[in-house]
Design goal:
The protein is mainly beta and 186 residues long. It has one helix and 16 strands. The chain folds into three domains: 63 residues, SH3 type barrels (Roll); 59 residues, Beta Barrel (OB fold (Dihydrolipoamide Acetyltransferase, E2P)), CATH 2.40.50.140; 57 residues, OB fold (Dihydrolipoamide Acetyltransferase, E2P). Helix content is 2%, strand content 54%. The strands form three sheets. Strands 1-6-2-3-4-5 form a six-stranded antiparallel beta sheet, with no helix packed on it. It has a five-stranded antiparallel beta sheet with strand order 9-8-7-10-11. The chain has a five-stranded antiparallel beta sheet with strand order 14-13-12-15-16, with no helix packed on it. The chain starts with a strand and ends with a strand.
């Protein structure tokens, strides 16, 4: 299917320079008395490299269909992460670079949304919040009761976040995956 460049949206997959690329960002620009254009940041699926590309707004671009599945994190195999599709039990192994900072919130059996282009995983999305167990929380000191005092706690995934003084080791807390901040007790 073919679309005009000004119809490009973040998350779409397109054909560009005989490669399939995912659109990471799109900005429409109309500078003064010049013709409008679309500035896009694309990531090549083959190489994984990002590039900044400019299209004229009327330019035709070939889109590639995306498939999105709910996947379950199963286990780590060496450095790689293995996810399983709970519907058909197909396994997908991805690199630590692909997982990125999402590793801070992945626990066994946690659900993520994975987007595929031509059978290759291209986007990993976490839910907006996850519930994790506090692995280590130092005791709050008596007298530390000023407003909104926080301490650093270590979660089961190894990531450290700030949480209120009353949080103890072994408690489950809700964490915002977009900001990495404590939300509430679970």
């Amino acid at each position: 299917m073919s679309v005009n460049a000004n119809e490009l949206r973040k998350g779409q997959a397109i054909q560009y320079n005989s490669d399939v690329c995912v659109v990471l960002e799109v900005t429409h620009r109309t500078p003064g008395n010049l013709r409008a254009f679309v500035q896009a940041i694309l990531r090549s699926i083959r190489t994984g490299k990002s590039m900044d590309v400019r299209f004229s707004s009327a330019e035709k671009i070939e889109t590639v269909p995306l498939m999105t599945y709910k996947m379950e994190f199963s286990y780590k195999s060496g450095d790689d992460y293995v996810f399983v599709n709970p519907e058909n039990y197909e396994e997908v192994t991805v690199t630590p670079e692909f997982v990125g900072d999402a590793k801070n919130f992945l626990t066994e059996n946690s659900l993520v949304t994975m987007t595929f282009v031509e059978e290759k995983a291209v986007i990993l999305e976490l839910p907006s919040s996850v519930i994790l167990t506090v692995a280590n929380a130092p005791e709050g000191l008596k007298g530390d009761s000023a407003n909104n005092v926080q301490k650093t706690v270590t979660l089961e995934t190894g990531v450290e976040i700030n949480a209120p003084l009353f949080i103890k080791t072994g408690e489950k807390i809700k964490v915002d995956t977009r900001t990495g901040k404590y939300m509430e007790r679970a």
